[in-house]
Design brief:
3-stranded antiparallel beta sheet, 6-stranded parallel beta sheet, about 15% strand, alpha/beta, TIM Barrel, globular, single chain
């Protein structure tokens, strides 16, 4: 496997660890993945929960109040600082969803904190470079689901005289939110293997922008297949939950070990996209009307319209993801990619990276 180049940064092993929030990929996981030669990715979601909400300056009902506390600048800065203690000056990234409230501010926070690469999905990040103009060395990596989306981004970024330093192509088998309709997630046309070549072809028009597929990639065989299709690297999220260093609660890791293939399902989300996760007690409570009350304390994502979409689907995504981070198996929302049921043991990041690069 060749190293992965993203802007001015070289990732020794072409494996990007997917950003997972709330609190699934923070300092321990991201720092260790970068230390072991991959690209560790810190999630910017819910940083007010970090270290028992130490960096949330106002809480209501035990939850960070409003955007500035849910997406805590101080929390993100501390996470980056502690990840750096693990990985040193190796490349380190931050995943910031485009759909969040205060997107531009959080991007600047990440730049100030010292991340090298910013990854953004959950929408077309048409003005992403606007917020990094004072940080020209920070590499920018949008997440797309098609060649058309990449073409739109390149067109929008012309006014900033900027091109993506790489692009992540996320297929419909990933964990969390999808860039596809519910039906498209099951159609052969949208299988990741069928999406790679058109995106690589589009990327080559602009000077060989590295393409990094994601969604359903599990082992070295899958990685080799993606590289043979013209990809420069891969992104993997769910498999890293099954590591000792993952920042997820031990209850989450145990749930992954217990999960069966039939437990992983697509669900509606307040964000407006279908989302993939593990069916738990929460889903039964939503269906029978006994799920926790929706209060919109944190005001996390703009498409939710201050809790209106949450009420429509029956749950608050910020509250339920944070419950998962805190290990509450009754009310937590546990995202997983389609292959999450294949986790049957918890191993070290070092061992996982060895398996992914050398085979199992």
């Amino acid at each position: 496997m060749k190293p992965l180049k993203i802007g001015k940064y070289t990732v020794e092993k072409p494996i990007v660890q997917g950003g997972m929030g709330v609190g699934i990929s923070w300092d321990r996981l991201a720092g260790t993945v970068s230390k072991e030669g991959g690209l560790g990715v810190i999630s910017a979601v819910g940083t007010g929960y970090y270290n028992n909400k130490e960096f949330s300056h106002k809480n209501i009902a035990g939850r960070p109040h409003e955007v500035e506390n849910f997406y805590s600048k101080d929390g993100l800065t501390e996470i980056v600082k502690n990840a750096r203690k693990i990985c040193g000056d190796k490349p380190l990234a931050c995943n910031i969803l485009y759909a969040i409230n205060d997107y531009g501010r959080v991007v600047r926070d990440a730049c100030e904190a010292g991340v090298d690469i910013i990854i953004t999905g959950a929408g077309i990040p048409s003005n992403m470079p606007e917020f990094t103009k004072d940080y020209p060395d920070v590499a920018l990596v949008p997440i797309v689901s098609s060649a058309r989306a990449l073409k739109i981004i390149v067109k929008k970024w012309k006014k900033y005289n900027r091109l993506p330093d790489a692009v992540i192509l996320e297929g419909p088998l990933s964990g969390g939110h999808q860039g596809f309709t519910y039906d498209q997630c099951f159609e052969d046309e949208y299988r990741l293997q069928n999406l790679v070549a058109p995106v690589v072809e589009e990327a080559e028009k602009y000077g060989d922008i590295p393409v990094i597929p994601a969604g359903g990639i599990w082992n070295k065989e899958d990685i080799d297949e993606m590289l043979s299709l013209g990809a420069s690297g891969v992104q993997m999220g769910t498999r890293f939950i099954g590591t000792h260093e993952c920042d997820a609660h031990e209850n989450f890791k145990q749930l992954m070990v217990e999960t069966k293939e039939s437990d992983i399902t697509l669900m509606k989300s307040p964000v407006g996209y279908p989302a993939r996760g593990i069916r738990t007690q929460l889903h039964e409570n939503i269906e029978n009307g006994t799920a926790p009350k929706i209060a919109c304390i944190s005001n996390c994502v703009s498409p939710c319209n201050r809790g209106e979409e949450a009420k429509a689907v029956g749950f608050c995504i910020a509250d339920r993801l944070s419950d998962a981070y805190e290990g509450d198996r009754e009310s937590g929302l546990f995202f997983s990619g389609s292959n999450g049921y294949r986790i049957d043991e918890i191993i070290s990041v070092k061992e996982l990276m060895d398996r992914l690069t050398n085979g199992e």
